[in-house]
Structure to design on (707 residues):
């Protein structure tokens, strides 16, 4: 399904590759399995169990509901700034479903949906976005890196992890690295693509092209007509996928992971999606976002089409939907309660984790810090 | 068995031994494999440990550190080389943003045990960007240790300790001292505690602090003043820039009451400032004279035509010691 994006010629005096950039004769495949109306390309339908399909759908709905709840909490002043994922659930959950627990999940900061599918408790996000590092780890999350706020930096970490896998001969695992369209302008992203390709390591780059890097539209981010074509320069399979189609995102990632585990190197996947909400709670998209564009994308909602698909398959109905909504609401409220009940944060924890060895100056400063805290509580 | 080795050979010995001791140690950098490094520090590693553990990378410093972080996260112990410290700024985002912070970000669940080796410093008539001394930049980052050896034997022992350290260590090698002299270095395993300064010679009248390539002109100046005036000077080699060994610094100044700090780097906001601040915090009332600094100047490190005038010399150090004794 994924065709190599470069035209390969047979040997015999001809160049191995012919690429006429002026005429743009290279090809970028676009994968869509489930269209905006929920029509299925049955030939390409992945072989997923009803259980997995429902898990995928449920996690997408959960992620959106968490986003919604987080936004309310933020507006009420009960939580700090956070980046919203609404609209991008399929681009995050599809790849996450294709992963096994042995694969590494290396995320950007807008992968709440995929992280939830990966098993991160809802409460973790609340903790992180309310200013506590405690939310960055969870049982079973040993191969899930915490979010990277610095754009694109994590792509290099993914390649390093994949390198370690390769030289250890781990053939049952790979790395999935999430980046956004903004990251594709960063040097670290290109260095990661290059290193991954030179080393032929098992890594899959999944780029959620949500059309905006805060206020900068995609066409000002890069003059390239697709992000997927950036893979050509690294002689890496590159494919564009309908990022609001969870089945296509799953399938493209699954195939890339299979190739990665088989020692066939990295892949770049561009998931074309849209950020339906603000960049973070501090952002006001009305300053730059054309309303008609937003409206058009609201009509391509990844959740709506997936629900239609499940219903058409006969594995989902209104009754299940209603029951799930009640369950999710309860789950989120439980997480809010657990999160707000957690107030016993040790103030000097930062001093515990500067170094893995005991350093006198850190201990001196800890004592001074605690002294000042005591003084201030006495003053109060 | 002991061999007379220069610093390049001593560092090479440490790399060979640690790669032999521990399969998870990998060397990574530009031209470090087949070529053995532009200074030949990694010579023979590629032949002995192969291309998967001695990794010639594409030419990208951030890529080297960023992928090293991933390797460390996944259980390897990378020893990365920046070909010259003047090129290392391209990896600073990865160091400050991730290598230094993954431990605190995950409250100890994920750690980044890696070493970044880099030749630094002037005095070798090199091109622009090949002569700076910028340890202060790295020393200011919490979560990173900065080590600067001064002799073949302490370079070897400190590098072994740096590789075994659970945190990122910036290991700055004074390239002016790479082949300047030889020293007996034991074949037997040797380590040195990171975070400890070394009293090179004990004394009672004045303390001199120096590190890296400044140790040689400092030793010469100390010797001259002692010979000429019959005074007793304590000489301390910092070895670790961060975390600074505050107790040794304060303890010595309490004893001598006079102090001169020698720093190759530009004057402001460097380790010398931090040493003086440490004295201020812990030993101010013992001072008999203001602490003097002999440093580079707050100008761009000049092209090598003017570098001998820029770099602290034994003459400048000598005069500062005398002035402090006479205050």
């Amino acid at each position: 399904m994924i065709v190599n994006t470069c035209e390969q010629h047979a040997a015999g005096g001809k160049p191995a590759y012919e690429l006429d950039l002026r005429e743009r004769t290279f090809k970028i495949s676009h994968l869509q399995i489930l269209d905006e109306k929920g029509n299925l390309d049955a030939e390409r339908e992945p072989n997923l169990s009803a259980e997995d399909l429902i898990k995928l759908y449920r996690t997408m709905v959960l992620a959106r509901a968490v986003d919604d709840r987080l936004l309310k909490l933020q507006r009420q002043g009960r939580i700090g700034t956070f980046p919203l994922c609404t609209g991008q659930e399929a681009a995050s959950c599809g790849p996450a479903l294709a992963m096994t627990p042995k694969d590494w999940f290396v995320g950007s900061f807008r992968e709440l949906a995929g992280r939830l599918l990966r098993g991160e408790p809802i409460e973790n996000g609340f903790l992180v976005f309310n200013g506590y590092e405690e939310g960055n780890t969870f049982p079973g999350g040993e191969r899930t890196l915490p979010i990277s706020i610095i754009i694109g930096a994590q792509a290099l970490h993914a390649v390093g992890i994949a390198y370690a896998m390769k030289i250890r001969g781990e053939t049952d695992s790979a790395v999935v690295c999430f980046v956004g369209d903004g990251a594709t302008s960063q040097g670290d992203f290109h260095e990661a693509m290059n290193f991954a390709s030179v080393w032929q390591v098992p890594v899959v780059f999944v780029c959620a092209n949500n059309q905006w890097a805060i206020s900068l539209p995609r066409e000002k981010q890069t003059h390239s007509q697709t992000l997927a074509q950036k893979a050509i320069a690294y002689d890496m399979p590159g494919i564009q996928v309908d990022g609001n189609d969870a089945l296509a995102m799953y399938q493209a990632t699954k195939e890339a992971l299979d190739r990665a585990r088989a020692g066939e190197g990295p892949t770049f996947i561009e998931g074309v999606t849209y950020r339906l909400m603000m960049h973070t709670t501090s952002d006001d998209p009305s300053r730059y976002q054309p309303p008609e564009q937003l409206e058009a994308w609201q009509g391509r909602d990844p959740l709506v089409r997936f629900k239609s698909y499940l219903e058409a398959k006969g594995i989902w109905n209104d009754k299940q939907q209603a029951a799930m909504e009640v369950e999710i609401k309860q789950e989120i409220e439980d997480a809010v309660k657990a999160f707000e009940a957690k107030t016993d944060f040790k103030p000097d924890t930062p001093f515990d984790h500067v170094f893995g060895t005991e350093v006198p100056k850190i201990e001196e400063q800890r004592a001074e810090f605690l002294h000042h805290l005591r003084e201030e509580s006495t003053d109060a | 068995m002991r061999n007379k080795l220069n610093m390049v050979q001593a560092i090479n010995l440490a790399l060979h031994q640690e790669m032999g001791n521990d399969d998870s140690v990998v060397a990574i950098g530009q031209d470090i494999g087949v070529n053995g490094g532009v200074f030949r520090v990694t010579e023979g590693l590629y032949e002995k440990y192969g291309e998967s553990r001695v990794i010639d990378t594409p030419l990208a410093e951030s890529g080297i550190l960023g992928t090293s972080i991933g390797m460390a996260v996944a259980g390897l112990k990378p020893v990365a080389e920046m070909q010259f410290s003047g090129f290392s700024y391209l990896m600073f985002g990865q160091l400050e943003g991730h290598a230094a912070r993954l431990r605190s970000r995950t409250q100890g669940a994920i750690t980044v045990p890696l070493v970044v080796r880099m030749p630094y410093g002037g005095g070798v008539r090199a091109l622009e960007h090949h002569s700076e001394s910028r340890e202060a930049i790295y020393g200011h980052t919490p979560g990173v240790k900065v080590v600067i050896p001064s002799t073949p034997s302490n370079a070897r022992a400190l590098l072994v300790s740096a590789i075994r350290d659970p945190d990122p260590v910036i290991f700055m090698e004074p390239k002016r001292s790479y082949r300047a002299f030889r020293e007996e270095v034991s074949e037997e395993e040797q380590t040195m505690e990171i975070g400890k300064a070394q009293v090179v010679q004990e004394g009672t009248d004045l303390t001199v602090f120096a590190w890296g390539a400044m140790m040689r002109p400092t030793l010469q100046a100390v010797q001259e003043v002692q010979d000429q005036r019959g005074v007793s000077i304590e000489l301390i080699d910092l070895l670790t820039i961060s975390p600074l060994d505050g107790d040794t610094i304060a303890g010595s100044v309490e004893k001598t009451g006079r102090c001169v700090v020698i720093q190759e780097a530009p004057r402001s906001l460097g380790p010398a400032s931090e040493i003086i601040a440490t004295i201020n915090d812990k030993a101010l009332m013992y001072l008999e004279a203001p602490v003097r600094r002999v440093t580079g100047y707050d100008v761009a490190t000049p092209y090598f035509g003017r570098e001998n005038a820029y770099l602290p010399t034994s003459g400048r150090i000598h005069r500062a010691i005398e002035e402090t004794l006479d205050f």
In short: The beta strands of chain A are 29-31, 104-106, 175-180, 203-209, 212-213, 216-217, 238-242, 267-272. Chain A has two domains: 29-341, 351-379.
